[in-house]
Structure formats: C-alpha cells, structure tokens
Target: Cytochrome P450
Amino acid sequence: MTSHLLSLLLTATSLGIILLLSRLLWSYLTSPIRDIPGPFLAKLTDLWRLYSHWAGTHIETQRKLHEKYGSAVRIGPNCVSISDPSLITTIYDTRGDFVKSDLYRVTDAVQDGQTVESVFSTRSNDFHSKYIKPIHKFYVMNSILKIEHFVDRTLESLCEHIEERFIERLNTGKLFDIADWIHLYTWDVMSELTFSKKMGFLETGGDVEDAIATNKFLMRYFALVGQVPTLDKWLAKNPILPFKLPTFSGAASLCAQRMFERVQNPALATHDDFLNRFLQAKVDYPDFVGDNDVVAYLMLHLLGGADTTAIILNALIYHLLRNPAAHSRLVSELTTARLPYPAPYAAASRLPYLTAVISEAIRIHPSIGNILERVVPPAGLELRDGRKIAPGTLVGVNAWTVARSKEVYGKDVDTFRPERWLQAEEEGVESYDSRVKGMRQAELAFGAGRRACMGKPFAMVELYKVVATLFGRFEIELEGPKTEWRVLKLFFVFPSGIMVRMRRAANGT
Ligand code: HEM
Model:
C-alpha cells in the first residue's frame, strides 16, 4: 500500500516537472522578445534574477551583460534591461506611457485588510495624478526652503554629537564609522520634519524602534520578491502565514499611530510639519484623501527620504576622502567662501566645486541599485538599432548602468572625478554645455519623467548643507588612505564602514 502510494506520488511529481519544463520551453521558444540576447537561464525563469539580487551581484552582473550583449539584455523571460541613455526620455516620459510594473505592488501596505497604494507604488496614472495633487506643493523648493532651519537644528546636533563623542577631551582622535552617524542624522531630520519630533537616533547613537533595521529588511524583501512579485501574496501579504515578517504594513502601523496621536493632540506639532500638511490635504480633498492615504503619504516620505539621502552623503564622503586632490580643492573652496555653519543652502549651492562633487557622488553611487521597471505600452519600444520590444514586456534602466556609460561620461567612468562636471581649460563654452547636457540626460539616480523623485529638492538642500558644513567645519581623514568600505546591495545600495578621525578645522566656527 505504502509503496503504491509512493510510486503514485513519484509519477505525479515527475509529471509535474515535465509539465513545468515544457511550459518554460514553450514560452522560451515563442517569446516575442526571443531575439534579445541574455543568459540562457534568465530567458527561462525569473528565479535567475531573483538569485542575482539575493547574492547582491545584480549591479555588476547587469553591467557585464551589457558589455557583452549591448544595450538591450534579457534578464527575465519577459524582462529586458536597457542601458542606452537616449531611451531614458522614452521609457520615463512625462506622460507616463510606460506604467510602473508589478514590482512596485510589493511596497503596497495592507491596512485593516485593505491594500493601500501610494503615489510611489501605484501602477495607475490616474491614481498617481489624483493623489499627487494634494501634496505636490509641499515638495517644491520654495516650500522646502521655508523649513530649512529645521535641517539646521538637526545638523547642528550632528556636529555636537561628533564633537562630544569623537573630538573633544578624552575622545580626541577617536576612530568612528561616519556612515552610521550620517544615517542616524538623516533619520532624525526626516522624523523632525514629518512629526515635529526627532525620533532620537543621534541621541541614542543607534537605531530607534528598529526603524533602520526594518527598512533594510524591507529593501532586501523589495529587491528579492520584486523579481517574482506573485511571491508577495504567499509571504508578506499572506494573512495565514504562521510567522510575521517586518512588512511595509508594520511601517504603516507606526505612521497610523503617530497620525491618531496628532489628531487627538494637535499641539504635538511644533511647526508646520509634514504630518500637519498631509492632514490638511485630507481637509482640502475630503472626497478622496482618507486616513489610509495620509498613512501612505507619511510612509513614503519617511521610508523614501532618509536612507536614500544618507547613501549619497556617505558615498560622497568616502570617495572624496579617497581622492586627496578633490578633497583639498573642496576644502579650499569652502575656506575661501567663509560660510557660516550650518551652511545656508543659498550660499552653498553657488559653489561650483561643491556642486561638481555632489553631481559626481550622485553619478558614481546612485541610491537605488535595481532597474526601475516599466511596462512597454501597446505601441512597443523601438531600440536605436531598429529592433522592437513587444508591448507588455517589462523594461527598465538601472541608474548604475547608465551612469557608467563611456559614450557619455568618458573612459574613466569608474573614477570619482568631480572635474568632469566643470569646463575644462581647453574646452569651448558650447561643447561644455552640450557635454553637461548629455551627462544630465543620462542621470537616473532620482528617476525621470512623470514618476521622478518628488523629494529631490529636499535631498539637494540636505546634500549641500551637510557636505559644506562637515568639510568646512572639520578636518576629516580616513583611517588609512586605502581603507575600504562595505557596500550592501539591496534595492538601496547601502555603504558602511567608513572609518574616520575628525578634528575641528582651524577656521571652522
Ligand atoms: C538622495 C536622495 C534621494 C534619491 C536618490 C531618491 C530617488 C528616487 C527615485 C529613483 C525615485 C523614482 C523611483 C522609481 O521610478 O521607481 C524616487 C521617487 C520618490 N521619492 Fe525620492 N529619492 C531621494 C530622496 C527623497 C526624499 C528626501 C523624499 C521625500 C522628502 C523623496 C520622496 C520621493 C517620492 C514621494 C517619490 C515618488 C514620486 C512619484 O512616484 O511620483 N525622495 N526617489
């Protein structure tokens, strides 16, 4: 009896495997994108790219594949990675013809049994237009500059903590990982601007309420499960899963809790913070902005703004410290500028070398390491060489790939060289302008087109202020000239292990 059952089971399993393999082979042979080259396994199953994200090799793998196969590479049975910068404005156009793919569904939260989309995750242009309208005005530069003094407050606190813990008295010359402190700072800034309350990352000198650790987990989850989004239904969005994953819904609960506290006690707002602004959006647009939407706005703001800015800041610090010539050129520009500290954005953003350093950091180390996936619309996508990508195919560009385009940035794409953003001595104005225009057009670190980053003005304000303040006020040196950092490649590409010693600069006030 048992052996009969066993043989039945074996036959059923073998049949299942044969059916699965036949299905894979059939879709391989009949795929409308079968002429797009790529690794054999990638053409058969999305598990191939899931594995490369799991191993953290997706960025290098995609780069190497583009070197081998050209500007279009098949990285999944229905997914093509594009590295041609001239297609950025097509795939990420301002009309939103190429809608976001199901990858983004993974970041939807579930609140009271309901799926909550956000302006980041939605696949619908109508939803996006509708829900962005009530909040767009809060993210424009004029509005951000009105709250610059709150950034000052947290930046001042970062400097004080660094001085107390690593510079003054017994702590003089103490070695520390500046990446950790930048990370704590960006989380405190975002919590202060969002909830009028620093969550106390700098004060504690570590994570608070597991926010940073949870976001890292979410970025790993998003990077992996996003490659096979149906898995999300069986994992994070599975109500009967016997164990709890720290999901996007967990972050949503924290934001919901803060929102209800505020509704009960409006005096908790010490300034016109983002929670107040989002609650006002609910008053202004009562027909469609409800509590769940305020939570979605809050989540996006908090989860999208802290890690991303910390990543660029840390990449900038590391690369600058590894490049003594660029480092001393920046310090000398700051010394001459004699800015007050914390540095005001208006003055810092006028400094040409600082601007070049920031542009180069954004180029060499974009915060996001995945392709930004979109769905090819009914009209299809035509490549530069005339090949066509069929409607319904998932396509996308990885900011890391285009930022290393030799055609656009020159041969030394792997070198941190801020000078590439400045006019060379022998270069005429016209050719400089057209070179910079080309470099700007190939930038994808903040996304592009209709779904580009809304928080870019705020991120830029922070980048200018923090870099000018730290490098103007302190002397910073790496533990050793060849100190290597660590880089954790998830959906975000997190640097760590930037071991430095700091001193007050002779003229830093
Ligand atoms: C250096 C810092 C930052 C980087 C590199 C960055 C990058 C990005 C990218 C690449 C996207 C588009 C993603 C896609 O197409 O899939 C995006 C979207 C978004 N980001 Fe940022 N971001 C940064 C900072 C911020 C900040 C500080 C905020 C909030 C204050 C923010 C809010 C948003 C929002 C709301 C969206 C969704 C926009 C939409 O779909 O309409 N970001 N960001």
